[in-house]
Structure prediction request, 136 residues.
Amino acid sequence: MNDRLAKMKARDKAMRQARDKMLRHVSQHLTTIGFTKASAGHFVRPSQGQTDHIGLQKHAGGRDVRVMTHVTLEDAAETTINGPWSDTYTRPESPNGIRYCFSWSTKEEDITRCAEEFCHFIDDVVIKWFANPKPL
Prediction:
């Protein structure tokens, strides 16, 4: 293996480790606000007449994470309504006017800042949407 490839592999590994550390912070936040871990990266919370779902999707290479949400209504058909995804909120024309920065590096302060951004997104956008879920 050449030196350049070895450096790239080491950097990817370090970024995956930083991502996983950041996601542990987000997971802890989710459990403190009433969610339980259903599977890897999938959290659920029963609510009045519905079950709230938050998914943390890791992308290959360790450099991107997406928050995906939906509710399952406790009706006869178990209707699913898709909710906000974090991607839309990283753009200048974010639906709530706040542009979240979900990027990180291997530095501790970047890991912490990114975890806090995801937690703010969950609190500011997702939890509010769960209170009155409408198709997007």
Residues 13 and 62 are 8 Å apart (CA to CA). Residues 3-131 form one domain. The longest helix spans residues 3-32. The chain is about 40% helix and 25% strand.
